Amino acid sequence: MDNKKNEKKEDPCWNGYHQLGMKTKDSKKVPDCVPDEKAKTSKKK
């Protein structure tokens, strides 16, 4: 039962979102999650 708490989640974003990096929010570093469509177009640039 405790295994779920100890497992590290690889993708911190919701389903349909992709992490592009980190951003600062309220002086803390948080994952910068964007919708999958934007993530795909951002990688091409």
Radius of gyration over C-alpha positions, nearest whole angstrom? 13 Å
| Alpha-beta classification | alpha+beta
**Count of DSSP E strands?**
2
Instruction: Enumerate the strands of the largest sheet in spatial order, edge to edge or round the barrel.
Output: 1-2
Helical fraction: 25-40%
The DSSP helix count reads 2
> What is the H/E order?
HEEH
The largest pleated sheet is described as: 2 strands, antiparallel
Strand content is 35-45%
Region (Disordered): 1-45
Biased composition (Basic and acidic residues): 1-12, 23-45
Keywords for this entry:
45 residues, alpha+beta, two-stranded antiparallel sheet, 2 helices, 38% strand
Summary, kept brief:
The protein is an alpha+beta fold and 45 residues long.
Task: Characterise this structure.
By secondary structure, this protein is an alpha+beta fold. Helix content is 29%, strand content 38%. The protein contains two helices and two strands, in the order αββα. The protein has a two-stranded antiparallel ribbon. The radius of gyration is 13 Å and the shape is globular. It starts with a helix and ends with a helix.
Which helices and strands occur, and which strands form pairs?
Layout: H1 3-6, E1 17-25, E2 28-35, H2 36-44
Antiparallel strand pairs: 1-2
Region (Disordered): 1-45
Biased composition (Basic and acidic residues): 1-12, 23-45
